Amino acid sequence: MNDSVADLTLTQDVKRRPNDPSLANAETRANPTRLKEAESSHSNLSKRSEILQGADAAVSGDRNVDYGPPDADFKTTAEFWNTYLNRVLTRKMGSTPIDARTQTVLNNLIDSWDVGAMMMLLKLSRISWSPQVEDHWMDSAGYAACAGECIDLHMHPEHRTS
């Protein structure tokens, strides 16, 4: 067993049984800093796992029932955003003509995975205001997972299950 695993195991035992004198071994008494480091490492891993598990529950649970598969949902959102951005561009450009190639690019400017990335940017904006809100971190991880699935399905259509 390596030192970090031993420290983590000791930390977990101490947390479960803080008044147990058998856990006050010579190593802990001789090096209380190692115990504090192990406690800190354990709590960080737990928070990371908690956030990722929360994101997994959000994207793997009833999400498809409520919103459809991410690739279909994000594709629809991308189409709406492309339409909206085209109208904004048309309004701002006025009577300036747009060539056919540029119009084709504009009509397909945002892909399904871009929706996930842009939703992550929304969450990052919210994090800048309230970083203590755990939901922002979970949602950002969830959007990353969904966007990753979208690009995977684009690059590997054989991965589609339905």
What's the number of structural domains?
2
Distance between the termini: 45 Å
Number of helices: 8
Q: Which ranges are low-confidence, i.e. pLDDT below 50, for 5 or more consecutive residues?
A: 4-29
Mean pLDDT: 81
The percentage helix is: over 70%
Q: C-alpha Rg, in Å?
A: 24 Å
Number of strands: 0
Strand content: under 5%
This entry's quaternary arrangement is: single chain
Q: What is the global morphology?
A: extended
SSE class = mainly alpha
Order of helices and strands: HHHHHHHH
**Largest sheet composition:** none
Summarize the structure in short.
The protein has 162 residues and is an all-alpha fold. The chain has eight helices and no strands.
Protein described:
- The chain has 162 residues and is mainly α.
- It folds into two domains: 1-50, no CATH class; 61-162, no CATH class.
- Helices cover 77% and strands 0% of the residues.
- It is built from eight helices and no strands.
- The chain has helices at residues 3-16, 26-30, 32-60, 63-67, 70-93, 100-107, 112-129, 134-155.
- The longest helix is centred in the first third of the chain and has 29 residues, at 32-60.
- It is extended, with a radius of gyration of 24 Å.
- The two termini are 45 Å apart.
- The model is unreliable at 4-29 (pLDDT under 50).
